[in-house]
Design a protein that fits this description.
394 residues; alpha/beta; Rossmann fold; six-stranded mixed beta sheet; globular
């Protein structure tokens, strides 16, 4: 991967915008999504990587040393206030006290990166400096950042930059396995304080298999032989460590009394999900359809985070009747999205969308995302889109 071409990220403009108006930025994102590469392009006056043990240990012993270094930097800074970058700040969360003081005294701006919001909140003694930091989220690559025409490749290998850069399927597989075994099974298991390696590895497998579904904590607890509260805690850790996306349901309705109120969980990357689930590279057609639905949901979430007015991504389900895979809520408007594994969509594929559009006046049009080669008008208010054009939903 040496010499790999840099990929422009959609968040760069937003980061620049907030820095220009004097704000500091907290850039959260799972491991290997490109946070370090992105902030390396910023013209910092002081840059520290807390991944390096000697650097981390120095500030653990003396957090106030950072204040003294900032005072020196102020005298020769190229920008005012000087820009300080702290990479993987969750490694030394006590530095947030120094950051807060420097921001309050207006002696520095910061870009902080982190891969665990949980560690920044540990013990209730550290917060994410509300009002002082603009929090942004860096995901794996979106279609807009790095177009890919091979849908099967996206469903099987995901969208992490390093994985996408590998041309060899065998190398992609090896790197994904390393990600799961080294990071998820070791570091996140340690975060969960789980001594039983087998139990947590089995939980990750089930979490991968159940990705995209409404999770039954009690059902998984019986499968794993642990309490349902422990299972719920494991999912909370995955969410806090940015490995799982939680998608909440749309529950408001004037006519339906039984709308689902439980959330869905998605593993953040489909390649990582597959390795967690111990699935091979030849899924059945029905499974491909399920993965396609997850892909669309993840892509909507990722593109919504890049948008300046971040929409919410929800879903809608009546256990006794219709359901809609994804709902994009933006500025009071609802845009329902159904996902179909077909290249020839028709009105039958739109029936749940039509039901939703009839029940919610704030929903004016709906979309079917599928494998059609070009947009198709299905009805007056429903359009079928090629999956490559998914961004037009937002």
């Amino acid at each position: 991967m040496e010499g790999m071409k840099y990929i422009e990220r959609g968040l760069e403009e937003r980061i620049g915008h907030h820095l220009e108006r004097g704000k500091s930025v907290l850039l959260l994102g799972p491991r290997q999504t490109g946070k370090t590469t992105l902030v390396a392009r910023l013209p910092a006056d002081l840059r520290l990587s807390l991944v390096q043990p000697d650097v981390r240990q120095r500030y653990e012993r003396s957090p106030g040393q950072l204040t003294a270094e900032i005072e020196v930097v102020r005298a020769r800074a190229r920008h005012w206030p000087p820009l300080v970058i702290l990479d993987e700040v969750q490694k030394v969360p006590v530095l947030l006290d120094v950051v807060q003081d420097a921001i309050d005294r207006k002696i520095a701006r910061f870009v902080l990166t982190g891969s665990s919001a949980r560690k920044l909140r540990r013990g209730g003694t550290v917060n994410l400096l509300p009002g002082r930091l603009v929090t942004l989220h860096l995901d794996p690559l979106t279609l807009a950042e790095h177009p890919e025409q091979n849908l099967r490749t996206l469903l099987l290998y995901g969208s992490l930059p390093g994985i996408r850069a590998e041309r060899s399927a065998a190398d992609r597989e090896a790197d994904l396995r390393s990600y799961v075994e080294t990071y998820l099974e070791e570091e996140i298991r340690a975060e969960a304080l789980v001594r039983n390696v087998g139990t947590f590895a089995r939980f990750l497998e089930l979490a991968g298999l159940e990705s995209g579904n409404i999770v039954s904590f009690r059902g998984l607890s019986q499968e794993l032989g642990i309490t349902h509260t422990t299972v719920a805690g494991f999912y909370e850790i995955l969410h806090d460590c940015l490995v799982a996306e939680r998608v909440d349901p749309l529950t408001r309705s004037r006519t339906r009394k039984k709308l689902t109120k439980s959330s869905r969980y998605l593993i953040f990357d489909l390649g990582v999900r597959r390795l967690c689930a111990n699935e091979g590279t030849r899924p059945h057609r029905d499974r491909l359809g399920q993965l396609f639905e997850q892909f669309v949901g993840l892509e909507l979430i990722r593109q919504s985070r890049v948008a300046r007015h971040e929409p919410r991504v929800l879903f809608w389900r009546d256990p006794d009747g219709p359901e809609v895979d994804w709902i994009v809520e933006r500025r009071g408007e609802l845009r329902p999205v159904e996902v179909k594994w077909t290249d020839a969509p028709d009105r039958r594929d739109a029936r749940h969308l039509e039901t939703f559009l009839g029940e919610y006046p704030e929903a004016r049009r709906g979309f079917i995302v599928c494998q059609t080669p070009r947009p198709v008008r299905i009805s007056e208010r429903v359009t079928a889109l090629p999956w490559q054009d998914l961004g037009s939903v937002l």
